[in-house]
DNA sequence: ATAGGGTTAG
């Protein structure tokens, strides 16, 4: 065996053995001590041999002669000299399995941290398991670190597994960490997973939760319209020792309002007003006002507004904005403006949302000139229109066929580097130009939006396809369709149906086959799977009037 | 760390 070893090993062997015997008596094996010069030297050697070995098996062979000096301290030092965490893990495992090294606690932690830092959480958790099975103690902060590292890396399933593991070990991760997990799961639209997870642990009492945990899950369930489960958590909070607070109630009231159960939301407000279990605040009232506005019940909305002022809860800018928008939507611009003036008097300055709602209201009521006056007033107040504002004004200008003004606004928008333009701002202009027969200008606008890195959506493409067809530019229409599919924008039955019926009308049914090939992604030039979101048969069956 | 607002077209 030794005859295959590199020459430097032969030279140093005697000295190494000497060191080993000397250390035996000194080393306790319980923790790292500062490596002395010789340990450091051996560690350098070990890490070098390991890194230069072509395989773990080869490394095992080459390190075998050193087995008597492979102390936990040497390995710990060697590990820190290997920059690649997976290589380090190789040495870590090899020394543990092949040479029986009992790693220091610190070596386990070091290894786990390295793996986490490189995003190798799977491996980190395996090392954690070994650490546990080797009987090392695990303190809370270290477990919190591991859980948080998984969360920050977005490895939510690993985090879930780790929560289970931690509670098996008798450690309950902090509610703060749990709440982060719940929030992330909900963000990733995994509300059900979050709810099942929380429910499981509540039943097993294997988790410490707080009011936030309930609020987060109730909000998530409301978001996916699972009000039954949301109410279940709400009603059971007390039995776990957590009473719903104002935020809990606000979340639930908002959830009910958004599910068109405003009256039920109102009942919750009335209940807390009566039993005083918590104090409703501006958000509570505002959510309810929003609920009533959404269903056009402005009397009821204003009633709540009056009530909150009577009780001494000051409406916020958001409260005013919601009411102003509500009045605009039902066509009551006088009330909208009077609230706007009230804002000014009450020292609650209007913001860009206020103006967007007012402008939208005027536009809906065919008072475009009043809308443009407000646009100017808004600029006078040095409030910058944002994408929403542009969208509203451009939309209505196009509807009134004031395309030149709309295009001017698009130019202004294009000059605003701070705004991310969205296809639906451009679409009405492209639509207007197509309807006016100016397909070439429509294409220019398309170019402008593409220059701003704004991706056309299926509406943009459909508008352009129909526009070209109407001008008899069938081949261009097909080319646009091809481009749409190539870009990964899925046509729907309206897109395909419109194009097909145009081709039929134009008397070139032969082209339909080509379109269907493009749509199905079986076109030889294409390599994009699953393009069409509706079955082709369905698309064919839909007739579209043009 | 959790709660309330404005655009939605072919």
From TrEMBL:
What Pfam families does the record point to? PPR, PPR_2
Annotated coiled-coil positions are none
Annotated PPR repeats reside at 104-138, 210-244, 245-279, 281-315, 316-350, 351-385, 422-456, 457-491
Tell me the GO molecular function terms: mRNA binding
InterPro entries membership? Mito_RNA-Proc/Resp, PPR_rpt, TPR-like_helical_dom_sf
Q: Which SUPFAM superfamilies match?
A: HCP-like
User: Which keywords annotate this record?
Assistant: Repeat
UniProt KW Repeat keyword: yes
Q: Which NCBIfam families match?
A: PPR
| PANTHER family linked | PENTATRICOPEPTIDE REPEAT-CONTAINING PROTEIN 1, MITOCHONDRIAL, PENTATRICOPEPTIDE REPEAT-CONTAINING PROTEIN 2
Q: What is this protein called?
A: Pentatricopeptide repeat-containing protein
Q: Which organism is it from?
A: Canna indica
According to the entry, what is the taxonomic lineage of the organism?
Answer: Eukaryota, Viridiplantae, Streptophyta, Embryophyta, Tracheophyta
């Amino acid at each position: 065996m030794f005859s295959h070893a590199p020459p430097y090993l032969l030279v140093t062997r005697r000295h190494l053995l000497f060191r080993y015997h000397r250390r035996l008596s000194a080393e306790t094996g319980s923790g790292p001590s500062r490596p002395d010069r010789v340990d450091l030297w051996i560690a350098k050697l070990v890490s070098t041999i390991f890194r230069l070995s072509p395989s773990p098996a080869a490394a095992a062979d080459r390190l075998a002669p050193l087995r008597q000096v492979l102390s936990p301290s040497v390995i710990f030092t060697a590990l820190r000299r290997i920059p690649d965490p997976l290589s380090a893990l190789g040495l870590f495992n090899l020394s543990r399995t092949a040479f029986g090294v009992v790693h220091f606690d610190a070596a386990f932690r070091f290894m786990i941290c390295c793996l986490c830092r490189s995003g190798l959480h799977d491996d980190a958790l395996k090392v954690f398991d070994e650490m546990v099975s080797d009987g090392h103690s695990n303190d809370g902060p270290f477990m919190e670190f591991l859980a948080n590292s998984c969360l920050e890396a977005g490895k939510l399933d690993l985090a879930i597994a780790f929560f289970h593991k931690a509670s098996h070990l008798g450690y309950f991760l902090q509610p703060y960490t749990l709440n982060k997990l719940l929030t992330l799961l909900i963000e990733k639209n995994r509300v059900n997973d979050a709810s099942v997870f929380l429910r499981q642990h509540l039943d097993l009492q294997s988790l410490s939760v707080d009011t936030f945990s309930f609020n987060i899950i109730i909000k998530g369930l409301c978001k996916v319209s699972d009000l039954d489960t949301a109410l279940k958590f709400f009603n059971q909070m007390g039995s776990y020792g957590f009473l719903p607070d104002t935020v809990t109630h606000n979340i639930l009231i908002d959830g009910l309002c958004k599910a068109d159960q405003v009256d039920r939301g109102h009942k919750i407000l009335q209940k807390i007003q009566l039993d005083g279990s918590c104090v409703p605040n501006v958000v509570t009232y505002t959510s309810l006002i929003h609920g009533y506005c959404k269903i056009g019940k402005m009397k009821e909305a204003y009633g709540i507004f009056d009530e909150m002022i009577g009780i001494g809860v000051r409406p916020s800018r958001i409260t005013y904005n919601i009411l102003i928008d509500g009045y605009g939507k039902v066509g009551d611009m006088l009330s909208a403006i009077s609230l706007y003036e009230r804002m000014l008097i009450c020292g609650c300055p209007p913001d860009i949302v206020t103006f967007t709602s007012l402008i939208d209201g005027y536009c809906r009521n065919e008072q475009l000139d009043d809308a443009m006056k407000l646009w100017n007033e808004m600029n006078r107040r040095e409030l910058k229109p944002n994408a929403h504002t542009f969208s509203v004004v451009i939309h209505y200008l196009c509807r009134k066929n004031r395309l030149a003004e709309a295009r001017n606004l698009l130019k202004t928008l294009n000059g605003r580097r701070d705004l991310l333009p969205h296809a639906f701002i451009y679409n009405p202009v492209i639509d207007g130009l197509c309807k006016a027969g100016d397909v070439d200008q429509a294409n220019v606008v398309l170019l402008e939006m593409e220059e701003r890195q704004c991706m056309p959506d299926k509406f943009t493409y459909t508008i352009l396809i129909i526009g070209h067809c109407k001008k008899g530019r069938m081949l261009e229409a097909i080319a646009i369709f091809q481009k749409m599919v190539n870009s990964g924008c899925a046509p729907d039955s309206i897109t395909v149906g419109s194009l097909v019926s145009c081709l039929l009308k134009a008397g070139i049914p032969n082209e339909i086959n080509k379109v269907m090939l493009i749509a199905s992604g079986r076109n030889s030039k294409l390599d994009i799977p699953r393009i069409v979101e509706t079955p082709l048969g369905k698309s064919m069956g839909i007739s579209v009037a043009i």
